[in-house]
Amino acid sequence: MINAELKYSFEYLGNSPRLVITPLTDRCYRTLLGAFYLQYGGAPEGPAGTGKTESVKDLAKAVAIQCVVFNCSDTLNYLAMRKFFKGLASSGSWCCFDEFNRIDLEVLSVIAQ
Known about the structure:
Layout: H1 23-37, H2 52-62, E1 67-71, H3 78-91, E2 94-98, H4 105-112
Parallel strand pairs: 1-2
């Protein structure tokens, strides 16, 4: 099935409810863990309201890594993103970008670099 390892991070995230594991969330978890093992990121896509953000947050909780959800808007600039990425890199957290399609093309090109 999968031959990937991801070390447990021992980050205490509290006692909150978990998602119900379905075949679709299981496939999502396997795909994302395989990508992280190969040092790639992941970008689940699909219709609104299908649980993409919640699945990523639950996977982060399963491996004890903090996941920060960032709601993107068209007023975002590259300076704000620079500060955000600096904080992410220093903490070792995962990030989930909600509404990524709302970012302006100019800011998106700076982020991609």
